[in-house]
Amino acid sequence: MNIIVTSLFVNNQDKALQFYTDVLGFVKREDVPIGEFRWITVVSPNNPNGTELILEPNNNPIAQEYQQKLVASGIPATMFGVEDIEQEYKRLVDKGVTFTMKPTQAGPVIIAVFEDTCGNLIQITQR
Fold first, then answer.
1. Is the pTM of this model over 0.85?
2. In CA terms, which of 5, 9, 83, 116 is 20 to 30 Å from 17?
3. The VOC domain covers which part of the protein (predicted)?
4. Which helix (H) or strand (E) holds 60?
5. What is the number of other CB atoms lying within 10 angstroms of the CB of residue 94?
């Protein structure tokens, strides 16, 4: 069994697609209209046939509350692995990304947390 798709609630699909591709560097895999929304997925450029991340609209009140409570509690919605967290941190800061936690040692890993401009906190991790 493999994880093939995971989702992330976003408050604006267009803004999310721009951020996740232009800023973070993911590659758009799917962008299919479905009623008033779209089925949008992105993948890592390092693994274009790997796990897809769905940029899921948070138009459901339960999704909105879940997303807001995660942020209010400082809990990242998901985590992305990076090879060199200091280099990635600098690259993202240079692109205007706002971090809520600078690279910090946490046991055997180094983590940092940023705002994705679409209602989420995202953690990056270096093992």
1. yes
2. 83
3. 1-127
4. none
5. 8
